[in-house]
TrEMBL record, chain A:
PROSITE patterns: ABC_TRANSPORTER_1, ABC_TRANSPORTER_2. Belongs to the ABC transporter superfamily. Its main location: membrane. It comes from Pegethrix bostrychoides GSE-TBD4-15B. InterPro entries: AAA+_ATPase, ABC_transporter-like_ATP-bd, ABC_transporter-like_CS, ABC_transpr_CbiO/EcfA_su, ECF_ABC_transporter_ATP-bd, P-loop_NTPase. This is Energy-coupling factor ABC transporter ATP-binding protein. CDD domains: ABC_cobalt_CbiO_domain1. Residues 9-245 form the ABC transporter domain.
From TrEMBL, chain B:
NCBIfam families: ECF_T_CbiQ. It is found in: Cell membrane. It comes from Pegethrix bostrychoides GSE-TBD4-15B. Keywords: Cell membrane, Membrane, Transmembrane, Transmembrane helix. PANTHER family: COBALT TRANSPORT PROTEIN CBIQ (PTHR43723:SF1). This is Cobalt ECF transporter T component CbiQ. GO terms for biological process: cobalt ion transport. The gene is cbiQ.
């Protein structure tokens, strides 16, 4: 067995079908996530993004193939799973799905209590993470009184309290308004700064184009292609999937060739402005 | 239910430790149960003052809830104080003949009624103070510390979380049905209601399955354990007022017993 300390998650020829369903949800899927690399996962609804996350967190068991982290395979006994889930955090698309406690602080403490940490450490970590995500004011609020954006932040805080090295986010900005989205993305920037590697499934191509170092494109349970955003969005076969293109990419492609000549495509508005300055 | 829940988290006595508020409410309740009407009225006034003035519960809301409960209790009062006899006794204040019988209200009945009224008013004010100022969650955690079995408290907390998930599901389904004309006629209403119940069952099972995934993802250990920060500030000023108030009420009660 080769240890690969920089590969935080690896799928090797994984198949998965839901019980009682004809179509496999994941087919012969192989991928590698490198530590420190911002990776985005895109694909149409139903292509298997959420299923991939469930597999990666050990919540479903692959029918075939191996899932590894740092070269070590995922084992499905209780102790091994709990250790795995401490290192690989999962934030569901719908926050209701993972909020269990009656109040914000209690919910954030839930994963820590399950680790049976000493109370002083739990208290210290809960307070720190509440502060980090701007939730200190809401600590004693019951969850059903929060807005969706706040619930999202609570579910993120509850996972980050465990200090995972890899964080899987399933459509984190779905249903959020622009302000809530901005707040959520700001929280992500902080998480990256602390050294947690992110894998984000999303439909927001503008965000992907600006943010990601590496892109995975799924279709019907398979990994269709992967590469840097620039490589992926230049592929003609991507258009057939009907995912569309990032706005900046479209603008850039529609500029006259002499303006673009010799420059790499801009990934932010600022870069675009600099690139076309006369 | 929702207004009460919200207020219990946003009231101005939020920072007082729950035990201090429970002590005040429960202590005053005991006093109310063992004292005479004048003292009971004083207790009702004092506790209402705390709820409306100190805790900042809107007066109109408080009045509505208090009157609602008192009106509900009042419906059972006639049975308790009206008597039926074949002749009008000497201490009757009022009576009407009913066939061969007399339905009458006696002095004793009247005194009894006012006693019951005062006692209900005082104890309602005490219970409302507890309900408006202590969130149910903190109340149940307090019960846990007072020796209530942990499993009961956990169940209570899970039920509390689930009630809001359930009402949320009902509201969504209802809205969807109403928007599409599901309750236009009585016949449709019956049909929609049965659909609602079936939909509710199905969605609840789905939600339960999803929540199970979420709970497992967070390292479920066959036990629900949480930690709560203690952000309360004990207030000596409030405690002094409570003790002084109780002392005054006890003195009043003694005086009514001696001279009353
Ligand atoms: N609980 C389930 N039971 C059976 N089939 C499911 C279940 N959840 C998802 N699927 C199917 O698996 C496929 C992948 O779904 P999913 O992973 O949710 O896709 P995505 O997250 O990309 O939208 C879809 O065809 C979907 O219908
Ligand atoms: Mg999904």
């Amino acid at each position: 067995m080769v240890e690969r300390p920089d590969i935080l998650l690896e799928f090797d020829a994984v198949d998965y079908s839901y019980p009682l369903s004809e179509m496999p949800a994941i087919q012969n899927l192989s991928l590698q996530l490198t530590a420190g690399q911002k990776t985005a996962l895109i694909g149409q609804n139903g292509c298997g993004k959420s299923t991939l996350f469930l597999l990666a967190d050990g919540l479903c068991r692959a029918n075939r193939g191996v899932i590894k982290s740092r070269g070590l395979p995922l084992r499905h006994d209780r102790v091994a799973l709990n250790q795995w889930r401490q290192r690989v955090g999962l934030v569901f698309q719908d926050p209701e799905q993972q909020l269990v406690a009656p109040t914000v602080a209690a919910d954030v403490s839930y994963g820590l209590c399950n680790l049976e940490l000493p109370e002083a450490e739990i208290a210290q970590r809960v307070e720190q993470v509440l502060h980090q995500f701007g939730l200190s004011e809401l600590a004693m609020r019951p969850l059903h009184q929060l807005s969706l954006g706040q619930k999202k932040r609570v579910s993120l805080a509850g996972v980050m309290a465990l200090r995972p090295e890899l964080l899987l986010l399933d459509e984190p900005t779905a249903y959020l308004d622009p302000i809530q989205t901005r707040q959520f993305l700001a929280a992500l920037t902080q998480i990256e700064a602390e050294g947690t590697t992110l894998l984000i499934a999303t439909h927001d191509l503008d965000f992907v184009y600006r943010w990601a170092d590496w892109l995975l494109v799924m279709d019907q349970g398979r990994l269709l292609l992967e590469g840097t955003p620039e490589q992926v969005f230049s592929r003609p076969d991507l258009l057939e999937l009907g995912l569309g293109l990032p706005l900046l990419k479209q603008i850039w492609d529609s500029l006259p060739a002499d303006l673009r000549q010799g420059q790499s495509p801009p990934r932010t508005l600022e870069q675009l402005r600099l690139a076309i300055r006369p | 239910m929702n207004a009460l829940d919200t207020l219990s988290y946003t009231n101005r006595l939020r920072h007082l430790p729950p035990w201090q508020k429970l002590l005040f409410g429960a202590g005053s309740l005991l006093l109310a149960l063992g004292s005479h009407p004048p003292v009971q009225l004083a207790i009702a006034g004092w506790l209402s003052f705390w709820t409306v003035h100190y805790a900042g519960v809107p007066a109109h809301l408080y009045r509505r809830v208090l009157l609602g409960i008192m009106a509900f209790l009042a419906t059972s009062l006639p049975v308790l104080i009206l008597n039926l006899a074949d002749h009008l006794p000497a201490d009757a204040v009022w009576g009407i003949p009913l066939a061969n019988w007399q339905l009458y209200l006696s002095h004793r009945g009247l005194a009894q009624a006012s006693e019951i009224f005062c006692r209900s008013l005082a104890s309602t004010a005490c219970l409302l103070f507890i309900a408006f100022t202590i969130p149910l969650i903190e109340l149940s955690l307090l019960f846990a510390r007072l020796g209530c079995p942990a499993i009961l408290v956990e169940l209570l907390l899970l039920a509390y979380r689930f009630i809001f998930l359930l009402t949320d599901t009902v509201q969504r389904l209802l809205l969807a049905q109403t928007a599409r004309g599901g309750y236009r006629t009585r016949q449709l209403t019956l049909k929609s209601a049965s659909l609602l119940i079936r939909g509710l069952l199905q969605r609840t099972v789905e939600r339960y399955q999803q929540l199970t995934l979420g709970v497992r993802a967070r390292g479920f250990n066959h036990q629900f354990r949480f930690w709560q920060p203690q952000l309360y500030r004990y207030s000596q000023r409030h405690m002094t007022e409570i003790l002084a108030g109780w002392l005054g009420l006890l003195t009043g009660e003694l005086l009514t017993r001696i001279y009353g």
